[in-house]
């Protein structure tokens, strides 16, 4: 008669279950490349510039936008925002609304942090109170406190992304005299975080009386896009700036035109060179005596 041997339910059984679980997951390497997103709203944006130029107004035209307000400033606009009045004063409330977005049914498609630097400051205050420290910069813990702030700030953004929500962050601008460059107004930690995760960094600015959205950087302007195959002129050149027109509707319409590669002019250095007057050489005809 065959001898029946029962499997142990001790540590050996546990390791056996882990082995079965690993096999059930079915790890496999990809055989095809991923397909880039084809919708404008599938990408993340950082839009920065001077106050009252139209940054918040532009984002109101993004699909089903919900604004997380970190400073007052939407009294003159019709927007969906949290909190309903004023602005956030406690990061715990930010976490609560993100949790609600994840678990409840709603029509929101885009979340906007306005402005991003104030969001980070609120997160920093929250971590300091939670961990009972005065400030990460005063702690001799080899950067552990700063990492705790970064982890908490990053976690919120990961949760928004996992909920399938598009993300836009608004920032004011600042001029760095030493570097001779215009940046988004962020702390170094916030700047490093957003530059690493955001797909598009756009600078909203005036040129005379006209407004432009600069989408590619120069020596004195921080900007850039990761959207390959988009933001090209009709003749295949990279778009450098997008004219924003005289209204918010015109501004967003022009953004969509540029995204669809239907803008005619690049508004870049190549065209600026074309319109510069050519220097004419001075010819002196010597008279013969």
Compact overview of the structure:
This protein has 289 residues and is α/β, with parallel strands linked by helices. The protein has 8 helices and 10 strands. It is globular, with a radius of gyration of 26 Å.
Explain what you see.
The chain is of the alpha/beta class. It has a single domain, classed as Rossmann fold. Helix content is 34%, strand content 17%. It has helices spanning 11-25, 55-59, 91-103, 116-131, 144-162, 188-197, 248-259, 269-275; strands at residues 45-49, 65-69, 81-82, 110-114, 166-176, 181-184, 200-207, 210-214, 224-225, 241-243. Strands 1, 2, 3, 4, 5, 6, 7, 8, 9 and 10 form a 10-stranded mixed β-sheet that branches. Strand 7 and strand 8 (210-214) form a beta hairpin. Helix 3 (91-103) runs parallel beside helix 5. The longest helix has 19 residues, at 144-162.
Write the layout of secondary structure elements.
Blueprint: H1 11-25, E1 45-49, H2 55-59, E2 65-69, E3 81-82, H3 91-103, E4 110-114, H4 116-131, H5 144-162, E5 166-176, E6 181-184, H6 188-197, E7 200-207, E8 210-214, E9 224-225, E10 241-243, H7 248-259, H8 269-275
Parallel strand pairs: 1-5, 1-7, 2-3, 2-4, 4-5
Antiparallel strand pairs: 5-6, 7-8, 7-9, 8-10
């Amino acid at each position: 008669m065959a001898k029946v041997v029962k499997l142990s339910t001790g540590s050996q059984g546990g390791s056996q279950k882990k082995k079965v679980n690993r096999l059930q997951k079915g790890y496999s390497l990809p055989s095809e490349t991923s397909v880039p997103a084809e919708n404008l709203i599938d990408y993340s944006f950082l839009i920065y510039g001077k106050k009252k130029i139209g940054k918040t107004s532009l984002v109101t035209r993004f699909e089903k936008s919900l604004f997380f307000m970190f400073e007052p400033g939407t009294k003159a606009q019709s927007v969906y925002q949290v909190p309903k009045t004023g602005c956030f004063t406690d990061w715990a409330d930010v976490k609560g609304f993100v949790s609600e977005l994840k678990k409840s049914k709603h029509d929101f498609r885009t979340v906007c942090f306005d402005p991003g630097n104030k969001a980070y400051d609120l997160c920093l205050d929250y971590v300091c109170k939670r961990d009972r420290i005065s400030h990460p910069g005063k702690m001799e813990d080899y950067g552990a406190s700063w990492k705790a702030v970064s982890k908490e700030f990053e976690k919120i953004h990961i949760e928004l992304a996992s909920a399938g929500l598009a993300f836009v962050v608004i920032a004011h601008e600042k001029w760095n005299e030493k570097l001779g460059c215009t940046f988004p107004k962020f702390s170094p930690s916030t700047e490093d975080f957003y530059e690493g995760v955001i797909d598009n960094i756009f600078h909203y600015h005036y040129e005379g009386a006209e407004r432009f959205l600069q989408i590619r950087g120069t020596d004195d302007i921080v900007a850039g896009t990761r959207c390959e195959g988009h933001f090209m002129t009709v003749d295949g050149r990279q778009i450098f700036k997008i004219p924003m027109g005289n209204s918010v509707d015109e501004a967003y319409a022009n953004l969509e035109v540029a995204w669809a590669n239907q803008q005619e002019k690049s508004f870049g250095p190549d065209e600026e060179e074309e319109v510069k007057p050519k220097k004419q050489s001075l010819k002196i005809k010597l008279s013969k005596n």
